[in-house]
Amino acid sequence: MESKNFRPSTFHFRPSTFYFLMSTTGGIKVFTGNANRALADEICNYLSCDLGNATTARFSDGEFNFQINDNVRGADVFIVQPTCPPTDSHLMELLVMLDAFCRSSAERVTAVIPYYGYARSDKKDRPRVAIAAKLVANLIAKAGAQRVLTMDLHAGQIQGFFDIPVDHLYAAPVMIQHYEANPLAKLTVVAPDTGGAERARAYAKRLKSADGSPAQLALCDKRREKANVAEVMNVVGDVRGRNCIIVDDLCDTGGSLTKVAQALRNAGAEMIHACFTHPVLSGQAVERLAESDIEQVVTTNTIPLSPHAQELPNVCTLSIAPLLAKAIKSIHEETSVSSLFV
Predict the structure, then answer these.
(1) In terms of Cα–Cα distance, which of 51, 173, 40, 57 is closest to 112?
(2) 326 has catalytic annotation
(3) How many Cα atoms within 13 Å fall on the side-chain side of residue 218?
(4) In what helix (H) or strand (E) does residue 226 lie, and over which residues does it extend?
(5) Of 174, 133, 150, residue with least CA distance to 80
(6) Which of 142, 56, 52 is CA-nearest to residue 93?
(7) Torsional class of 183: left (φ above 0), alpha (ψ -120 to 50), beta (otherwise)
(8) 107 and 70 in one domain?
(9) Which of 60, 187, 270, 316 has the smallest count of CB within 10 Å of its CB?
(10) Is the pTM of this model over 0.85?
(11) Whether residue 236 is found in the same domain as residue 137
């Protein structure tokens, strides 16, 4: 006899949820589009595997012409594709590739997105604007991604925009290792705005000055009147006679970084470094950095540096390929990646 409390209409079987309870049995396959092939090659080198063979050309009208040339049936596929400028083109490449692998019977498809475009559009902070970061998350999941691996999101809450697992890594271990090998005397870590205070504090806790003393922390009070235009009001903390590292997630036009550097110099700072994960460097960013008070720029290869940006005499690019390779290996082997989330 059927129970009165049983309500068939309220029970929904979700195959995708059940899927994540199963371990992948296929081999690992790494593919890439046209966004950052050099990074994908480097990741494969650390994983001791060959980069997947696929056609990544374009038709004469500009449409992305993608075809998988390897057998991926039952494989654990990782697509390395940052959505860096031109963002729309690279995002569309990612969506087309995801669809192709799902239709080719890959057992699991993970989108490895070192740089997540549209991340700055994460909330409705003005009337009649889109939350594009959520829209992009919906597109990626709908296209067939079953997991996302990304790095240094502009806003951590973007992880919650996805209904699939997200592994969010940080470039901090790579940056900190660099400054441990090249320590600065009288070190102060600077947040370019109040929103970056947590990131800067994490760096300051782990870094030391050349004499072994703990790094100090400072921040800038920044007021943004409109997009891509920033005005630094004052520096909170004593930076006089100190060597400063400005820590941020990305550099787009360079306006914020150069104005923070100017404010630090006016406050008496000596040497100034800029340290950011994603070198977007659009518009006049390269010229601004070259003419600024910043002695060295330390960044990573989540985004390939343009030929123009490579002309900067003071830029140091660190590789995040080993970090991503470790995460990919852990995801494939179903082991913990929590040790990488620091």
Answers:
(1) 40
(2) no
(3) 25
(4) strand 216-226
(5) 150
(6) 56
(7) beta
(8) yes
(9) 60
(10) yes
(11) no
Q: What angle do CA 252, 255, 260 make, to 5 degrees?
A: 120
Residue labelled with tokens 């409390």: 5
Q: Where would I find the H helices in the chain?
A: 15-19, 37-47, 87-103, 132-143, 172-181, 197-206, 255-266, 285-291, 321-333
Mean pLDDT over each residue of the chain, to the nearest integer: 90
3-state helix, strand, coil in the chain (%, to 5): 35, 25, 40
For 59-109, the DSSP string reads: -TTS-EEEEE-S--TT-EEEEE----SSHHHHHHHHHHHHHHHHHTT-SEE
Q: Out of 29, 186, 222, 259, which one is annotated catalytic?
A: 222
Strands 296-300 and 315-318: parallel
Residue-number span of the structural domain to which 176 is assigned: 172-319
Length of the chain: 342
How does pLDDT run across 257-297, given as a tens digit for each residue? Answer: 999 999 999 999 999 999 999 999 999 999 999 999 999 99
H/E element, 278: strand 272-279
User: What is the rounded CA–CA span in Å between residue 281 and residue 300?
Assistant: 12
> Which residue in 52, 49, 58, 114 sits closest to 83, CA to CA?
114
* Of 120, 105, 119, 113, nearest in space to 26 by CA: 105
With 0-12 / 13-18 / 19 or more C-beta atoms within 10 angstroms meaning exposed / middle / buried, residue 49 is middle
Q: How far apart are CA 331 and CA 76, in angstroms?
A: 10
For residue 121, the domain's CATH number is: 3.40.50.2020
φ and ψ at residue 54, rounded to 5 degrees: -155, 155
Taking the CB of residue 224, how many other CB atoms lie within 10 A of it?
12
Whole-angstrom Cα distance, residue 63 to residue 38? 23
Question: For residue range 122-152, what is the model confidence (pLDDT) as tens digits?
Answer: 999 899 999 999 999 999 999 999 999 999 9
